[in-house]
Task: structure prediction
Amino acid sequence: MEGDPLATPGTSNGAGSRPAGQPPAYESVVMADAVSSSSLAAGRDSNYRKSSEFEITVTDPVKQGERVAAYVTYKVRSKTSMSQYKQGSSEVIRRFRDFAWLYDKLHERYKGIIIPPLPEKNAVQKYQMSTEFIEQRRRGLQIFVNRVAAHPKLKYSNELQLFLEATEDVWMMEVARMNQESGGAKKTINNTMQFFKDLGHSATNLMAGKSDDEEEDPDYLKVREYLVHLESHLIEAHRQSARLIRKQGELGIAVGEFGQAAEKLGKFEEGSLQDAFVHLGNHAGDLSTVSRDSANSLSYQFEAPLKEFTRMMKSVRAVMADRTNALSFLQQAKADLDAKRVKMNKLKSTPGIKEEKVVEAERERDQADLRLQNARAAYETIVERMNEELARFQKERAVEMSQVLRDFALAQAQLASETARSWSSLVTELQPAAPA
Amino acid sequence: GYMQYKVVTKSTLSSYQNPEPVVLRRFREFVALDQLLKAKFRGYFIPPRPEKNAVEGQRMKDSFIEERRAALEKYLSRLVSHPEIGPSEEMRLFLETDADLATNIHWLMVQPPQQSFLEGAARLPKQLFGKEGVPQPTEVMQPAKKSADIMRMMREGMQGFKNELYTLVDMPDDEKELRCQTKLMEMMWDQLSDSSRVAERLVKKFERMGAVYGDLGLSFIKLSKYEEIEGSERARFTDTVSCARALSGDTKQCGIALVRLARLARKVTNKMAQDLGELHDYMYFMPSVHRALTSREQAMLTLQTLQSQKVAKEKAVKEMETSDKPLAGERAKIRRLEMFKAEIAGLENSAMAAKAEYEKIKAVNFQEMERFRAQKAADFTEMLRSLACVQAAYAERSAEVWVSVARELGATEQQVGETRGGMPNRSIRCETGMMGR
Result:
């Protein structure tokens, strides 16, 4: 790959280039090594935000097809040092639904892991396919795939490898095959649920039948509640951040318009006062431009990350739902086993019962027992993974939030500084115009 | 019911009987004052009086009353600061007379001669037959109002149209000068309206931005509080206690900075509205300027009308004197000639009075234009200076606040330096007195 694509992500599109002196963009921090001097980052052994084994970029969006059937393809370039990969570097073409496939597959296979979120699926905006929307999506996709590649478990997944390496035909074949398999797996789960229902286990029966060690950890339940409320706070913070950017932009426009009107008014004055009005017009024009640029970069540096936090919470909710499902599955399996055991014992103690009926009942009990063990294993895997994941999630969120806030403060400081410079030079220019 | 306003004056003028008169005035008395001044101070730029039209339901509301009170106070202050109007007898009577002006003899005596519509209409037939006579000198000093001397109006209307045709070619230089000034003032009036509207929008947008700062700040503070209480509790489950504390701390820093700046933005908004209000005031002053300048044009019109009437009559006399008429009408002819000559003499007097009035208004126009220009230059200079100072100070303070937050959140000195773009830590020399913590 030419150059170091990670130092300036997206420059091949002409986007993402920033004026000298701007604090580093959030996403470049996500991609690059941790530069923050935050005490949390210090002394960390593993860097979750950049994988030491991968370098991945998502670039060159190209519109394909017509109108309703239109879509965008992206070039996904990757370099890796992972031994399991056939090639050290690859370049493939993928579209949004391919990324979505990767997300779905990872979610299916890695229960309990918080899968990094995808950018919006928004149908209306997609139909319009504005340049801005495509650029936002491109950035989101790049962050997504890099987060996957940096995750301690997901980085080893076959799905990721297939996504990064497979050529068109191989990709389509494997995708079709995996879909069939998991389609089958989905069917099995549905069948089993139906099976339990058919056996006439009502919800209350199952609840009544469950034993103590099949209950949810009360501490976990409190954490779950915390996370649900946290999401609403994060959504509010994002909403306000979007409003801020909008209002700052509108103010910039109003300043520019005022400058123009004032300059026209100044034509009816003379001498230094007229000059002063001209200066006002000039400075107002500059400020208008500065405001607009600031609003643009803020939307990537500040609003987009806050939006991503809210999307991350959706992934968290998905994992929590998985845990709940796994638990209820486990509870149902336990209740079912108990029922089968009771039935078997009853048959055994019935005088004059046919041998084959008892054998049948024993077999059913064995099957139920196996199901229970699988269910328990699945549930416990999720629990174990979730503990690690929640810890990772909190730590990562803390560092990233600090970074986002720090960059926001720096951007605001810069804007304020330039604004101050502009107005104070107008003050200086006005001094000779002041009456004696 | 109606409101009465207490007018308290302090005067050092010797013409005042009482150095600190206190009187009660109704709004309609202010209206009467305005009408009086407009009639007696033709050519002067008279400060505009507060609006009359009040929605019925609003008139007794406290906020409306206070608004009107402040407007009336401002109105009187501007009147007394005018070099001619301030020390006038009319002002003294308004400020000192401890009675209702409508029935006060002294007040009624300073009123200008008025002609009612009925009187004007009654004169019409006589004028048509040429028997009525000529406008008297005192009458010509007043512009032809809609309710009086309709004939005069018609005549003067024609004259004005003639002026337009020959544009400014035949006018003396100083008249030309003032007509150009009038045109300029009209154009400036347009630009003032535009600027005033745009300025109002600017203030509104600034206010909204300040409000959003507050909203975002609050949402950050709420988030941080939640992390602090709930997050720390739950953190024990995942063993991330230190994370939760740092998270809530950083978010709180940002939130507090935003709320602080929102408060400051509110103050700045008020000052901005005050400063840019100057544009609004000047916009509302323009009708007075326009009225003063056009009153001179009316005076000129009156003068020209009288002069052309006189010329027409003189021409008629000449024709009568040189024509051959039968002996039978000789006595009637002589009588007619005598009458015409008397009318010509009357017109001569009126024209002289009209000329004097015109010249007076012209001189006043020049004087007022000069004073207006100087005042405007001073006011606009101060407006720009104050606006720039306040904006600069606010931006400097914002930068300070954000830099300190960035430092708290771990920004390097290099990063901080980059935001300043190499500008030294210079504070703005401004007398604003509002940028304190």
The beta strands of chain A are 54-64, 71-80, 89-95.
